[in-house]
Protein backbone atom coordinates (compact mmCIF):
# COMPACT_ATOMS: atom_id res chain seq x y z
CA UNK A 1 0.00 0.00 0.00
CA UNK A 2 2.82 2.37 0.90
CA UNK A 3 4.41 1.68 -2.48
CA UNK A 4 1.15 2.49 -4.30
CA UNK A 5 0.78 5.72 -2.31
CA UNK A 6 4.28 6.82 -3.25
CA UNK A 7 3.69 5.96 -6.92
CA UNK A 8 0.53 8.08 -6.87
CA UNK A 9 2.42 10.99 -5.27
CA UNK A 10 5.17 10.67 -7.89
CA UNK A 11 2.59 10.69 -10.70
CA UNK A 12 0.91 13.78 -9.27
CA UNK A 13 4.27 15.53 -8.88
CA UNK A 14 5.15 14.73 -12.49
CA UNK A 15 1.77 16.03 -13.65
CA UNK A 16 2.35 19.27 -11.72
CA UNK A 17 5.69 19.72 -13.47
CA UNK A 18 4.26 19.01 -16.92
CA UNK A 19 1.21 21.24 -16.55
CA UNK A 20 2.72 24.14 -14.60
CA UNK A 21 3.08 26.20 -17.79
CA UNK A 22 -0.41 25.50 -19.10
CA UNK A 23 -3.34 27.90 -18.59
CA UNK A 24 -5.91 26.87 -16.01
CA UNK A 25 -5.52 23.80 -13.85
CA UNK A 26 -5.48 19.98 -14.11
CA UNK A 27 -7.52 17.70 -11.88
CA UNK A 28 -9.11 14.29 -11.52
CA UNK A 29 -12.60 14.18 -10.07
CA UNK A 30 -15.10 11.48 -9.14
CA UNK A 31 -18.63 11.94 -10.46
CA UNK A 32 -20.38 11.82 -7.11
CA UNK A 33 -22.70 14.54 -5.83
CA UNK A 34 -19.86 16.64 -4.46
CA UNK A 35 -17.39 15.97 -7.31
CA UNK A 36 -14.69 14.67 -5.02
CA UNK A 37 -11.25 15.95 -6.02
CA UNK A 38 -8.78 13.03 -6.24
CA UNK A 39 -6.01 15.24 -7.57
CA UNK A 40 -5.63 18.92 -8.43
CA UNK A 41 -2.60 20.83 -9.65
CA UNK A 42 -1.34 23.94 -7.88
CA UNK A 43 -2.50 25.96 -10.89
CA UNK A 44 -6.09 24.85 -10.22
CA UNK A 45 -5.95 26.18 -6.66
CA UNK A 46 -4.39 29.39 -7.96
CA UNK A 47 -7.20 29.63 -10.49
CA UNK A 48 -9.85 29.55 -7.78
CA UNK A 49 -7.61 31.58 -5.44
CA UNK A 50 -7.21 28.82 -2.87
CA UNK A 51 -3.76 27.63 -1.81
CA UNK A 52 -4.17 23.99 -0.79
CA UNK A 53 -1.04 23.91 1.31
CA UNK A 54 -2.29 26.81 3.46
CA UNK A 55 -5.83 25.53 3.96
CA UNK A 56 -6.63 24.13 7.41
CA UNK A 57 -8.91 21.67 5.64
CA UNK A 58 -7.83 21.40 2.00
CA UNK A 59 -10.67 21.61 -0.53
CA UNK A 60 -11.46 18.05 -1.53
CA UNK A 61 -14.62 18.61 -3.58
CA UNK A 62 -15.70 20.99 -6.30
CA UNK A 63 -18.96 21.54 -4.45
CA UNK A 64 -17.06 23.37 -1.68
CA UNK A 65 -15.77 25.95 -4.20
CA UNK A 66 -19.14 26.79 -5.81
CA UNK A 67 -20.59 30.26 -5.16
CA UNK A 68 -23.68 29.81 -2.97
CA UNK A 69 -26.09 31.40 -5.47
CA UNK A 70 -25.03 28.80 -8.10
CA UNK A 71 -25.69 25.68 -6.01
CA UNK A 72 -28.97 24.85 -7.76
CA UNK A 73 -27.38 25.43 -11.19
CA UNK A 74 -24.48 23.18 -10.14
CA UNK A 75 -26.82 20.44 -8.90
CA UNK A 76 -28.83 20.50 -12.13
CA UNK A 77 -25.68 20.07 -14.22
CA UNK A 78 -24.45 17.11 -12.14
CA UNK A 79 -27.86 15.40 -12.34
CA UNK A 80 -27.92 15.91 -16.13
CA UNK A 81 -24.44 14.39 -16.52
CA UNK A 82 -25.37 11.34 -14.47
CA UNK A 83 -28.52 10.84 -16.49
CA UNK A 84 -26.65 11.03 -19.81
CA UNK A 85 -23.92 8.65 -18.60
CA UNK A 86 -21.51 10.25 -21.08
CA UNK A 87 -17.75 9.78 -21.42
CA UNK A 88 -17.43 13.57 -21.61
CA UNK A 89 -17.84 15.96 -18.71
CA UNK A 90 -18.46 19.70 -18.61
CA UNK A 91 -19.39 22.00 -15.74
CA UNK A 92 -19.84 25.77 -15.45
CA UNK A 93 -19.94 27.55 -12.10
CA UNK A 94 -18.71 30.66 -10.30
CA UNK A 95 -16.25 31.07 -7.45
CA UNK A 96 -16.09 34.04 -5.09
CA UNK A 97 -12.71 35.81 -5.26
CA UNK A 98 -10.84 37.44 -2.38
CA UNK A 99 -11.61 40.90 -3.78
CA UNK A 100 -15.34 40.14 -3.77
CA UNK A 101 -15.64 39.61 -7.54
CA UNK A 102 -16.96 36.44 -9.17
CA UNK A 103 -15.00 34.27 -11.58
CA UNK A 104 -16.58 31.83 -14.04
CA UNK A 105 -14.87 28.42 -14.11
CA UNK A 106 -15.32 25.75 -16.77
CA UNK A 107 -14.28 22.16 -15.99
CA UNK A 108 -14.03 19.95 -19.04
CA UNK A 109 -12.83 16.36 -19.10
CA UNK A 110 -12.94 12.72 -20.25
CA UNK A 111 -13.79 9.54 -18.41
CA UNK A 112 -10.84 7.37 -17.39
CA UNK A 113 -10.61 3.65 -16.59
CA UNK A 114 -10.23 4.54 -12.93
CA UNK A 115 -13.14 4.30 -10.46
CA UNK A 116 -13.66 5.84 -7.05
CA UNK A 117 -15.07 3.77 -4.19
CA UNK A 118 -17.11 5.63 -1.60
CA UNK A 119 -18.76 3.51 1.04
CA UNK A 120 -20.69 0.89 -0.97
CA UNK A 121 -20.91 2.93 -4.20
CA UNK A 122 -18.56 3.17 -7.15
CA UNK A 123 -18.18 6.36 -9.20
CA UNK A 124 -16.42 6.99 -12.53
CA UNK A 125 -13.34 9.21 -12.52
CA UNK A 126 -12.73 12.00 -15.04
CA UNK A 127 -9.46 13.63 -16.04
CA UNK A 128 -10.22 17.32 -16.45
CA UNK A 129 -8.94 20.77 -17.29
CA UNK A 130 -10.25 23.84 -15.46
CA UNK A 131 -10.24 27.21 -17.24
CA UNK A 132 -11.16 30.80 -16.41
CA UNK A 133 -14.20 31.59 -18.62
CA UNK A 134 -15.06 34.97 -17.12
CA UNK A 135 -14.31 36.98 -20.28
CA UNK A 136 -16.22 34.53 -22.46
CA UNK A 137 -19.22 34.51 -20.14
CA UNK A 138 -19.22 38.31 -20.01
CA UNK A 139 -19.30 38.37 -23.82
CA UNK A 140 -22.08 35.78 -23.77
CA UNK A 141 -24.07 37.94 -21.34
CA UNK A 142 -23.63 40.93 -23.63
CA UNK A 143 -24.95 38.88 -26.56
CA UNK A 144 -27.91 37.80 -24.43
CA UNK A 145 -28.62 41.43 -23.55
CA UNK A 146 -28.45 42.41 -27.23
CA UNK A 147 -30.86 39.61 -28.11
CA UNK A 148 -33.22 40.80 -25.37
CA UNK A 149 -32.93 44.31 -26.78
CA UNK A 150 -33.76 43.16 -30.31
CA UNK A 151 -36.65 41.04 -29.02
CA UNK A 152 -38.00 44.11 -27.22
CA UNK A 153 -37.67 46.23 -30.36
CA UNK A 154 -39.46 43.53 -32.35
CA UNK A 155 -42.32 43.52 -29.87
CA UNK A 156 -42.56 47.32 -29.84
CA UNK A 157 -42.69 47.39 -33.64
CA UNK A 158 -46.03 45.53 -33.46
CA UNK A 159 -44.93 43.38 -36.39
CA UNK A 160 -45.42 39.62 -36.19
CA UNK A 161 -42.03 38.03 -36.90
CA UNK A 162 -41.93 34.32 -37.63
CA UNK A 163 -39.62 31.39 -38.34
CA UNK A 164 -40.68 28.20 -40.12
CA UNK A 165 -38.46 25.12 -39.70
CA UNK A 166 -39.05 23.10 -42.84
CA UNK A 167 -37.92 19.66 -41.61
CA UNK A 168 -39.86 19.98 -38.33
CA UNK A 169 -42.88 21.54 -40.12
CA UNK A 170 -43.12 24.02 -37.22
CA UNK A 171 -44.04 27.70 -37.51
CA UNK A 172 -43.05 29.92 -34.57
CA UNK A 173 -44.11 33.55 -34.11
CA UNK A 174 -42.95 36.11 -31.57
CA UNK A 175 -45.12 36.25 -28.46
CA UNK A 176 -47.05 39.22 -29.88
CA UNK A 177 -48.88 36.73 -32.11
CA UNK A 178 -50.71 35.33 -29.06
CA UNK A 179 -51.62 38.83 -27.89
CA UNK A 180 -53.05 39.93 -31.24
CA UNK A 181 -54.66 36.75 -32.57
CA UNK A 182 -55.29 34.83 -29.36
CA UNK A 183 -53.56 31.69 -30.70
CA UNK A 184 -50.49 29.72 -29.63
CA UNK A 185 -47.33 31.33 -31.03
CA UNK A 186 -45.91 27.93 -32.08
CA UNK A 187 -47.80 25.89 -34.68
CA UNK A 188 -46.67 22.30 -35.18
CA UNK A 189 -47.65 20.28 -38.29
CA UNK A 190 -48.15 23.64 -39.96
CA UNK A 191 -48.52 22.32 -43.52
CA UNK A 192 -51.41 20.07 -42.46
CA UNK A 193 -53.16 22.70 -40.35
CA UNK A 194 -52.82 25.50 -42.89
CA UNK A 195 -55.61 24.25 -45.13
CA UNK A 196 -58.03 24.06 -42.19
CA UNK A 197 -57.13 27.31 -40.43
CA UNK A 198 -59.87 29.73 -39.41
CA UNK A 199 -57.43 32.58 -38.72
CA UNK A 200 -56.87 33.46 -42.41
CA UNK A 201 -59.82 35.01 -44.27
CA UNK A 202 -61.42 32.30 -46.50
CA UNK A 203 -61.05 34.44 -49.62
CA UNK A 204 -57.30 34.85 -48.99
CA UNK A 205 -56.51 31.24 -48.01
CA UNK A 206 -56.11 29.89 -51.60
CA UNK A 207 -53.52 32.60 -52.32
CA UNK A 208 -51.66 31.80 -49.10
CA UNK A 209 -51.58 28.09 -49.98
CA UNK A 210 -50.28 28.91 -53.44
CA UNK A 211 -47.45 31.06 -52.04
CA UNK A 212 -46.56 28.42 -49.43
CA UNK A 213 -46.28 25.75 -52.15
CA UNK A 214 -44.16 28.05 -54.33
CA UNK A 215 -41.71 28.65 -51.47
CA UNK A 216 -41.52 24.95 -50.71
CA UNK A 217 -40.88 24.48 -54.44
CA UNK A 218 -37.79 26.69 -54.28
CA UNK A 219 -38.98 30.29 -54.61
CA UNK A 220 -36.49 32.40 -52.65
CA UNK A 221 -38.78 35.22 -51.49
CA UNK A 222 -42.47 36.03 -51.42
CA UNK A 223 -44.73 38.96 -50.60
CA UNK A 224 -48.50 38.71 -50.27
CA UNK A 225 -51.39 40.53 -48.65
CA UNK A 226 -53.84 38.66 -46.45
CA UNK A 227 -56.50 39.26 -43.85
CA UNK A 228 -56.46 37.65 -40.40
CA UNK A 229 -59.12 37.25 -37.73
CA UNK A 230 -57.98 38.80 -34.44
CA UNK A 231 -58.84 37.47 -30.98
CA UNK A 232 -61.52 40.19 -30.74
CA UNK A 233 -63.21 38.94 -33.89
CA UNK A 234 -62.07 41.87 -36.04
CA UNK A 235 -60.50 41.49 -39.48
CA UNK A 236 -56.99 42.95 -39.84
CA UNK A 237 -55.05 43.28 -43.10
CA UNK A 238 -51.38 42.27 -43.18
CA UNK A 239 -48.58 42.10 -45.71
CA UNK A 240 -46.45 38.99 -45.36
CA UNK A 241 -42.75 39.09 -46.26
CA UNK A 242 -40.99 35.69 -46.36
CA UNK A 243 -37.50 34.52 -47.37
CA UNK A 244 -35.81 31.13 -47.46
CA UNK A 245 -32.62 30.59 -45.42
CA UNK A 246 -30.10 28.02 -46.67
CA UNK A 247 -27.70 25.88 -44.62
CA UNK A 248 -23.95 25.45 -45.22
CA UNK A 249 -24.72 22.86 -47.93
CA UNK A 250 -27.02 25.32 -49.73
CA UNK A 251 -30.11 23.34 -48.80
CA UNK A 252 -33.21 25.26 -47.66
CA UNK A 253 -33.84 24.58 -43.97
CA UNK A 254 -36.07 27.40 -42.76
CA UNK A 255 -38.19 30.36 -43.81
CA UNK A 256 -38.10 33.66 -41.93
CA UNK A 257 -40.34 36.67 -42.31
CA UNK A 258 -42.84 39.03 -40.79
CA UNK A 259 -46.47 40.09 -40.94
CA UNK A 260 -46.87 43.87 -41.10
CA UNK A 261 -50.31 45.31 -40.45
CA UNK A 262 -51.76 47.53 -43.16
CA UNK A 263 -53.51 50.52 -41.68
CA UNK A 264 -55.55 51.29 -44.78
CA UNK A 265 -59.18 52.36 -44.81
CA UNK A 266 -61.58 50.34 -46.92
CA UNK A 267 -62.22 53.28 -49.27
CA UNK A 268 -58.50 53.59 -49.94
CA UNK A 269 -58.41 49.92 -50.91
CA UNK A 270 -61.05 50.65 -53.54
CA UNK A 271 -59.18 53.75 -54.73
CA UNK A 272 -55.89 51.86 -55.24
CA UNK A 273 -56.89 48.21 -55.87
CA UNK A 274 -54.47 45.27 -56.08
CA UNK A 275 -54.77 45.38 -59.91
CA UNK A 276 -52.80 48.65 -59.95
CA UNK A 277 -49.58 46.97 -58.89
CA UNK A 278 -46.84 46.69 -61.48
CA UNK A 279 -47.04 43.22 -63.05
CA UNK A 280 -43.29 42.58 -62.86
CA UNK A 281 -42.10 44.15 -59.62
CA UNK A 282 -45.36 44.10 -57.59
CA UNK A 283 -44.90 47.70 -56.46
CA UNK A 284 -47.38 50.41 -57.42
CA UNK A 285 -47.68 51.47 -61.04
CA UNK A 286 -46.60 54.96 -62.04
CA UNK A 287 -50.20 56.23 -62.11
CA UNK A 288 -51.12 54.74 -58.73
CA UNK A 289 -47.92 55.98 -57.07
CA UNK A 290 -48.35 59.50 -58.43
CA UNK A 291 -51.98 59.63 -57.25
CA UNK A 292 -51.10 58.48 -53.73
CA UNK A 293 -48.09 60.78 -53.39
CA UNK A 294 -50.00 63.79 -54.76
CA UNK A 295 -52.81 63.24 -52.23
CA UNK A 296 -50.34 62.80 -49.35
CA UNK A 297 -48.42 65.97 -50.23
CA UNK A 298 -51.61 67.98 -50.66
CA UNK A 299 -52.99 66.89 -47.27
CA UNK A 300 -49.72 67.06 -45.35
CA UNK A 301 -49.87 69.11 -42.12
CA UNK A 302 -47.69 72.27 -42.04
CA UNK A 303 -45.33 70.80 -39.45
CA UNK A 304 -44.94 67.39 -41.11
CA UNK A 305 -41.73 66.48 -42.97
CA UNK A 306 -41.61 63.93 -45.77
CA UNK A 307 -39.14 62.85 -48.46
CA UNK A 308 -39.26 61.73 -52.07
CA UNK A 309 -36.68 59.28 -53.43
CA UNK A 310 -36.16 58.83 -57.17
CA UNK A 311 -34.02 55.76 -57.87
CA UNK A 312 -32.45 54.74 -61.16
CA UNK A 313 -31.14 51.19 -61.50
CA UNK A 314 -28.06 51.27 -63.74
CA UNK A 315 -26.42 48.60 -65.92
CA UNK A 316 -29.35 46.26 -65.37
CA UNK A 317 -30.11 45.74 -69.07
CA UNK A 318 -26.65 44.45 -69.87
CA UNK A 319 -26.58 42.01 -66.98
CA UNK A 320 -30.24 40.99 -66.82
CA UNK A 321 -29.93 38.28 -69.48
CA UNK A 322 -26.97 36.77 -67.63
CA UNK A 323 -28.91 36.88 -64.36
CA UNK A 324 -31.89 35.13 -65.94
CA UNK A 325 -29.68 32.28 -67.14
CA UNK A 326 -27.39 31.92 -64.10
CA UNK A 327 -29.74 32.84 -61.22
CA UNK A 328 -33.18 32.44 -62.77
CA UNK A 329 -33.91 35.92 -61.49
CA UNK A 330 -34.75 39.39 -62.75
CA UNK A 331 -32.69 42.39 -61.66
CA UNK A 332 -35.64 44.77 -61.25
CA UNK A 333 -37.59 42.21 -59.23
CA UNK A 334 -34.61 41.75 -56.92
CA UNK A 335 -34.25 45.52 -56.48
CA UNK A 336 -37.98 45.93 -55.77
CA UNK A 337 -37.71 43.26 -53.05
CA UNK A 338 -34.93 45.25 -51.40
CA UNK A 339 -37.07 48.39 -51.44
CA UNK A 340 -40.20 46.63 -50.17
CA UNK A 341 -38.28 45.07 -47.29
CA UNK A 342 -36.86 48.41 -46.15
CA UNK A 343 -39.86 50.71 -46.01
CA UNK A 344 -43.08 50.87 -44.02
CA UNK A 345 -46.40 49.74 -45.40
CA UNK A 346 -47.72 53.30 -45.37
CA UNK A 347 -44.77 54.49 -47.48
CA UNK A 348 -45.37 54.50 -51.24
CA UNK A 349 -43.11 52.59 -53.64
CA UNK A 350 -43.81 52.82 -57.37
CA UNK A 351 -42.16 51.90 -60.65
CA UNK A 352 -42.17 54.99 -62.83
CA UNK A 353 -39.95 53.86 -65.71
CA UNK A 354 -38.10 50.83 -67.06
CA UNK A 355 -35.49 50.93 -64.31
CA UNK A 356 -36.81 53.84 -62.26
CA UNK A 357 -38.52 53.68 -58.87
CA UNK A 358 -40.08 56.41 -56.76
CA UNK A 359 -40.42 56.18 -52.97
CA UNK A 360 -42.38 58.55 -50.75
CA UNK A 361 -41.74 58.53 -46.99
CA UNK A 362 -44.04 60.55 -44.75
CA UNK A 363 -43.70 61.69 -41.14
CA UNK A 364 -39.90 61.70 -40.99
CA UNK A 365 -38.55 62.33 -37.50
CA UNK A 366 -34.88 62.74 -38.41
CA UNK A 367 -32.77 63.41 -41.52
CA UNK A 368 -30.54 60.58 -40.35
CA UNK A 369 -33.20 58.08 -41.39
CA UNK A 370 -32.86 59.23 -45.00
CA UNK A 371 -29.08 58.77 -44.99
CA UNK A 372 -29.39 55.32 -43.42
CA UNK A 373 -32.06 54.22 -45.89
CA UNK A 374 -30.13 55.49 -48.91
CA UNK A 375 -26.85 53.96 -47.74
CA UNK A 376 -28.54 50.61 -47.13
CA UNK A 377 -30.19 50.61 -50.56
CA UNK A 378 -26.83 51.30 -52.24
CA UNK A 379 -25.10 48.62 -50.19
CA UNK A 380 -27.76 45.95 -50.81
CA UNK A 381 -27.96 46.65 -54.56
CA UNK A 382 -24.16 46.45 -54.80
CA UNK A 383 -24.32 42.98 -53.24
CA UNK A 384 -26.78 41.74 -55.84
CA UNK A 385 -25.52 40.11 -59.02
CA UNK A 386 -21.79 40.26 -59.73
CA UNK A 387 -20.00 37.91 -62.12
CA UNK A 388 -16.26 37.68 -62.80
CA UNK A 389 -16.83 37.61 -66.55
CA UNK A 390 -18.99 40.74 -66.53
CA UNK A 391 -17.19 44.02 -65.78
CA UNK A 392 -20.36 46.05 -65.18
CA UNK A 393 -22.30 45.14 -62.05
CA UNK A 394 -25.70 46.47 -61.11
CA UNK A 395 -25.67 49.84 -59.34
CA UNK A 396 -28.23 52.40 -58.26
CA UNK A 397 -28.32 56.21 -58.19
CA UNK A 398 -30.69 57.98 -55.81
CA UNK A 399 -31.92 61.56 -55.69
CA UNK A 400 -33.74 62.70 -52.55
CA UNK A 401 -35.89 65.77 -51.94
CA UNK A 402 -37.15 66.87 -48.54
CA UNK A 403 -40.49 68.65 -48.14
CA UNK A 404 -42.19 70.29 -45.17
CA UNK A 405 -45.92 70.89 -45.12
CA UNK A 406 -48.25 70.82 -48.17
CA UNK A 407 -46.44 70.77 -51.53
CA UNK A 408 -46.82 70.14 -55.26
CA UNK A 409 -45.74 66.70 -56.46
CA UNK A 410 -44.28 67.95 -59.76
CA UNK A 411 -42.06 70.48 -57.97
CA UNK A 412 -40.78 67.95 -55.42
CA UNK A 413 -40.16 65.39 -58.16
CA UNK A 414 -38.11 67.97 -60.08
CA UNK A 415 -36.01 68.61 -56.96
CA UNK A 416 -35.39 64.89 -56.51
CA UNK A 417 -34.39 64.55 -60.16
CA UNK A 418 -31.90 67.40 -59.74
CA UNK A 419 -30.28 65.47 -56.89
CA UNK A 420 -30.35 62.32 -59.05
CA UNK A 421 -28.33 64.07 -61.77
CA UNK A 422 -25.63 64.81 -59.20
CA UNK A 423 -25.68 61.24 -57.88
CA UNK A 424 -25.23 59.80 -61.39
CA UNK A 425 -21.86 61.54 -61.70
CA UNK A 426 -20.53 58.72 -59.53
CA UNK A 427 -19.82 55.49 -61.42
CA UNK A 428 -20.82 53.38 -58.41
CA UNK A 429 -24.00 53.36 -56.32
CA UNK A 430 -24.51 56.72 -54.65
CA UNK A 431 -27.12 59.23 -53.49
CA UNK A 432 -27.55 62.98 -53.19
CA UNK A 433 -30.05 65.07 -51.21
CA UNK A 434 -31.53 68.20 -52.74
CA UNK A 435 -31.06 71.22 -50.47
CA UNK A 436 -33.79 73.83 -51.12
CA UNK A 437 -33.03 77.52 -50.93
CA UNK A 438 -34.17 79.28 -47.71
CA UNK A 439 -37.87 80.05 -47.65
CA UNK A 440 -38.78 77.28 -50.10
CA UNK A 441 -39.64 73.57 -49.69
Which features does this protein show?
Alpha-Beta Plaits, alpha+beta, 441 residues, 3 domains, Beta-Lactamase
> Which structural category do the helix and sheet elements fall into?
alpha+beta
CATH fold field value of the largest domain: Alpha-Beta Plaits
| Widest beta sheet: strand line-up | 8-7-6-11-10-9
Kindly report how far apart the N and C termini lie. Answer: 97 Å
Approximate strand percentage: 25-35%
Cα-based radius of gyration, to the nearest Å: 32 Å
Silhouette: elongated
Number of strands: 16
Largest sheet: 6 strands, antiparallel
Q: Which CATH top level class of the largest domain fits?
A: Alpha Beta
Overall tally of domains:
3
Average of pLDDT: 81
Determine the fraction of residues in helical runs and give it as a percent range.
25-40%
Low confidence ranges: 1-22, 52-56, 264-275, 387-391
Tell me the CATH architecture of the largest domain.
Answer: 2-Layer Sandwich
Name the CATH superfamily classification of the largest domain: Reverse transcriptase/Diguanylate cyclase domain
Order of helices and strands: HEEHHEEEHEEHEHHEEEHHEHHEEHEHE
| Count of helix runs | 13
